[in-house]
Amino acid sequence: MSTPSITALPDGGLKSPGAGLITLDPVRTALLRGLDDLLTGLAARLGAPEVLGPPLLSVEGLARLDFFRNFPHLGVSAARFAPAALDGLAAGEAPGDLPLRPTGHLLPSATCYGLLLSLEGRDVGEEGLRLSASGRCFRNETHYDGLRRLWGFHMREVLYLGTKQGAVEHLEQGAGFILEAAARLGMELDRAVADDPFYDKGGARARLMALDPVKHEFSAPDGTAIASVNRHRNFFGERLDIRAGSAGPAYSACVAFGLERWVHAMVLTHGSPERALDRLHDAAL
């Protein structure tokens, strides 16, 4: 049996089922899968085993992490049809007109939240802990723009918890890997400080962030941020009682990759999905 060819579909993909939603065509799907394989090289280099995070996050847990104070606009709620709606659904009534009941959970907006919440009360030791995970993330944005800004997208993260110095080294290695991977793929990225807090914005913490930024983004020539390095200090360690042995509350840091945005940047750089896929194959050798 012959192997089907991988080709791009007209207009870059299949018909969008709604704003911020897209079905990738075969060539862009191959790009996304191949890029994820390439980017997991950071996890392999750092000895970060692969885990699978939860598909939903409790609003109670997120509230303890100041998620709603910092990102009140991003949350996408998970809801169930109320029991009173079931008869109407069975009778063929329009689902949009029937009542929903909150579940107390949100869809993840970043991969690391589920991993951090699952480590509550743990001692990761002074040697620290690294984990790698990829998952679907969802954000309620003010607007959507092709693969640059989606309602639902894939995010690969490599997370570290441990000592302050370990977190610094994790981000240094992550930043170096991002630039190395981009060079192998023929892309030039700009690095810049980003305003994206992982902890409360009041008082001394806000002043400290202004003097000592916690997030840097790496952007394609059109300004699309495709990767970031994020230093959480010991915020999550304190809030979730995650300890690093005698060092006290764990410091944490993560390196994040937006996979659809990497696909966008590759096509932007190389002019077509097919040429981008060829370059990815060369880089993976």
TrEMBL record:
UniProt KW keywords: Ligase
Source domain of life: Bacteria
Annotated InterPro entries: aa-tRNA-synth_II, aa-tRNA-synth_II/BPL/LPL
EC number: 6.2.1.-
Recorded GO MF terms: ligase activity
Claim: Ligase is one of the keywords in the record: yes
Record has Membrane as a keyword: no
Protein name, as recorded: Amino acid--[acyl-carrier-protein] ligase 1
Organism name: Streptomyces lavendulae subsp. lavendulae
